[in-house]
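Tokens as discussed.
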């Protein structure tokens, strides 16, 4: 009988055993990894076009000017640089530092953010 992770080949980021020779047998170094470039949407907001219409990824470059976050459904915001301050309904404020994230529910409606910060926002796209 197999234990929970007996069929796992680890590639790193864990203190558990990493079987490099077995990992190299399974990898295909000739596979081309696509590089996605963001398309500017507006000042401070760029979108990464993906083949999945139900998923959107945005890059936010927050200067001192407040931006309304794109999307209306559930979203996850990850601050990777600086300090992002989110403003939702009156009295709802959240501040995120580097490496911090938050969930924005669909019920939160319009949310604005300012910085200075760089962040990524993942959300739903057009669901047909």
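Sequence:
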């Amino acid at each position: 009988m197999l234990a929970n992770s007996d069929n796992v080949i680890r590639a790193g980021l864990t203190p558990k055993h990493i079987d490099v020779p077995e990992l190299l047998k399974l990898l295909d170094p000739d596979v081309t990894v696509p590089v996605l470039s963001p398309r500017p949407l507006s000042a401070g907001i760029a979108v990464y076009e993906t083949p999945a219409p139900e998923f959107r990824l945005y890059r936010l470059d927050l200067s001192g000017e407040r931006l309304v976050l794109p999307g209306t459904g559930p979203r996850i915001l990850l601050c990777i640089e600086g300090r992002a301050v989110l403003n939702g309904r009156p009295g709802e404020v959240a501040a995120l530092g580097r490496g911090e994230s938050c969930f924005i529910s669909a019920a939160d409606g319009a949310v604005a953010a300012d910085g200075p910060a760089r962040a990524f926002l993942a959300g739903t796209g057009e669901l047909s």
